[in-house]
Write a structure and sequence with these properties.
Layout lengths: L2 H17 L5 H11 L7 H11 L5 H13 L3 E4 L4 E4 L10 E5 L5 E4 L2 H13 L10 E4 L2 H7 L5
Length: about 150
């Protein structure tokens, strides 16, 4: 496991301990699988991986673990891909944006609070009450852009 992956898992342990939550072995394993999928993991891919380790794993097992991880800010759902990625910063779980590379699939998490506040204010001016925001930006990461356009720098 890389240092980054170890850090994410340690942060999950700390958050669960602080909130009095139980990171069961199944929840932990689902989180580990998601952490190791930088481009996102789909629920049935998670189920396949878990079933290979534990033949009794069923879809409700995965979806309960995903619901727990989502509701506690440990992962994000990539709506456009119907996949899940680990959350690099659980304390900002409600105010984030995702940059998704269309070439390599890498997902980067941003926390542009001013953008978040501007969107809330624009919605309020329309009399709209925001309950959930999903901002996904698709394009090319720096590495893929340089690879595809080597002379543009």
């Amino acid at each position: 496991m890389s240092l980054e992956h170890e850090k994410l898992m340690a942060e999950a342990d700390t958050l669960c301990l602080r909130k009095g939550l139980r990171l069961t072995p199944t929840r932990r394993r689902v989180l580990e699988l998601i952490v190791h999928s930088p481009g996102g993991a789909k629920a049935y891919d998670l189920l396949d991986a878990l079933t290979a380790e534990n033949p009794s794993a069923r879809p409700p097992t995965i979806y309960r673990a995903i619901d727990f991880l989502l509701s506690n800010g440990l992962i994000h759902r990539i709506e456009s891909l119907n996949a899940y990625v680990s959350c690099a910063c659980p304390e900002h779980a409600q105010a984030y944006q995702l940059l998704i590379c269309k070439d390599c699939g890498k997902v980067q998490e941003l926390h542009e609070e001013s953008l978040d506040h501007q969107l809330d204010a624009a919605a309020a001016r329309q009399g709209f009450y925001v309950e959930k925001k999903t901002i996904e930006v698709h394009g090319l990461c720096q590495q893929c852009h340089v690879t595809q356009h080597p002379t543009s720098h």
